[in-house]
Write a structure and sequence with these properties.
The complex is a heterodimer of chains A (about 110) and B (about 140).
Chain A: E1 4-7, E2 11-12, E3 17-24, E4 46-53, E5 56-63, E6 72-78, E7 83-91, E8 95-105
Parallel strand pairs in A: 2-8
Antiparallel strand pairs in A: 1-3, 3-6, 4-5, 4-7, 7-8
Chain B: H1 2-34, E1 40-41, E2 44-47, E3 51-54, E4 58-64, E5 74-81, E6 88-93, E7 102-107, E8 113-121, E9 126-137
Parallel strand pairs in B: 1-9, 3-9
Antiparallel strand pairs in B: 2-4, 4-7, 5-6, 5-8, 8-9
The chains are: A mainly beta (about 110), B alpha+beta (about 140).
Chain lengths: ~110, ~140
């Protein structure tokens, strides 16, 4: 299981814009490199990242090989209600990772 | 000897064609996303260091000027490059719930080049922003 790091403020005021940061460990092999024998190294990247807030998707990213290894992403959302933020990554060779964080909205 | 000269000039020709092909590839990738729409310049700003020492991980931020209300928001942001082996960098889908149209990540750059971001608004209009970066150590080219 890939290691994922999430930063979500644990508490927020209703209507506040919160910043979310997510990072997952992944090689993000471009598919454009060769080994010392000149053999192409096959592509192995994360293609899709999604974030859901209490089941509703609030952010989606599509990654290409131009995203650096251990993809980091930062975005914002409006704190609407207490609940769970769920993060999902999926990619080549059946890669999946997920993480969730709780938020209390006052 | 003549063969060597031929090979070198063929290589130079192929290289010239390749760099042109990459700029065309960015144009084609952008057209595929725009689907006939014409982007206007402005509202989109890209934050990239002007001089990059290591192209393997470059901090990248894209911002779109938009009130981000339920009626007026950014639907999606698509990011492209001119000279990497592939023209796409990433696509982000936002929405009215984003609050602010700011997305940050870390990207790879294979060469000094121009990075373009296209933003689609809730009214269907497209806006674009560009940034130029100088890269001293390129990504993707080294062997393992």
């Amino acid at each position: 299981m890939a290691r994922a790091l999430i930063r979500v403020p644990p508490r927020a005021r209703r209507g506040e814009v919160i910043e979310i940061k997510a990072l997952v460990s992944h090689i993000m092999e471009t598919g454009f490199r060769h080994d010392q024998y000149g053999k192409a190294i096959p592509r192995d990247i994360i293609q899709v990242f999604t974030c859901s807030y209490n089941g509703a998707e609030i952010f989606r990213a599509r990654f290409y090989p131009a995203i650096a290894a251990n993809p980091f992403i930062s975005f914002t959302t409006i704190a609407t209600e207490s609940g769970t933020l769920r993060f999902d990554w999926s990619g080549d060779n059946g890669f999946t990772a997920s993480e969730s964080a709780a938020i209390t909205v006052e | 000897m003549r063969r060597r000269i031929f090979l070198i000039s063929a290589g130079a020709l192929a290289f010239g064609a390749m760099s042109r092909a990459r700029a065309d590839a960015m144009h084609d990738a952008m057209q595929a996303v725009l689907d006939g729409a014409k982007p206007q310049e402005g509202r989109v700003s890209i934050d990239l260091p002007p001089l990059v020492e290591n192209g393997n991980t470059v901090p990248f931020t894209v911002k779109v000027e938009c009130p981000m209300t339920a009626q007026e928001y950014v639907r999606a942001i698509h990011v492209f490059n001119e000279k990497n082996p592939q023209p796409n960098i990433a696509s982000f889908e936002l929405g009215a719930r984003a609050g602010r149209a700011v997305v940050a990540t870390r990207i790879r750059l294979a060469d000094s080049q121009t990075v373009v971001a296209l933003a689609q608004m809730s009214d269907g209009s497209w806006w674009s922003g560009t940034a130029h970066v100088i890269v001293t150590i390129a990504a993707c080219t080294e062997t393992v």
